Amino acid sequence: MQTDNQIYVVIGGTSGIGAELAGLLKAEGAQVHVASRRTGLDISDEQSVYHFFESVGAFDHLIITAGSFAPAGRVVDVELAQAKAAFDTKFWGAINAAKQAARYIKHGGSITLTSGMLARKVVAATYVKTAINAALEAVTRVLAKELAPIRVNAVSPGLTDTQAHHGMSDEARNTMYQRAEAALPVKRIGQTADIAMAYLLLLQNPYMTGVVIDVDGGALLN
């Protein structure tokens, strides 16, 4: 890929899919600014994000892979405070980052958001994740019009083997993976490298904006 003189910002780039993507970009010689809670950036805090982009200055591409804990459960059982906190990070955090970054993105640049297959796959007891991801996909198309000629796209990953699942017991995680592998047409779960390729496509193709790329092993077919 062409990374000459390109500057990238990867928010959520210290782990999982974001770290994989940042590593690929760096391997190509690109200048990459990586940020996350681990580096001291709270994307739910407007002033924190404002000062972060002020320190970066002009750049070409913003990729947001930062997620959040989203409580699972039926609408009658989930605590609204937890649901709102999840929105504050993944949804409002992404909006906050896009808002502040737009002032610094160069001509021909882009913003790539991250949603998830639950935006369009109906699964009981997942309304919080579903709502966040669906909102991000809807906003992707609006921002693509508002911020043009900055391109705005999104990647929608399916189940992926990342640190996000390492809080589960080994038995529970392996059972989840095995069930998914049996149900998916590709008969395996996603790896971070699989998902990173979709971001690279959106970064490289100057004729793509307002689109959502599904990388889910065929989960939406079931």
Automatic annotation (TrEMBL):
Q: Which InterPro entries match?
A: NAD(P)-bd_dom_sf, SDR_DHRS6-like, SDR_fam
Look up the EC number in the record and give it: 1.-.-.-
Q: Which Pfam families match?
A: adh_short_C2
Extract the GO molecular function terms from the UniProt entry.
oxidoreductase activity
UniProt entry keywords in alphabetical sequence: Oxidoreductase
Would you identify the family this protein belongs to, as annotated? Belongs to the short-chain dehydrogenases/reductases (SDR) family.
Q: What is this protein called?
A: General stress protein 39
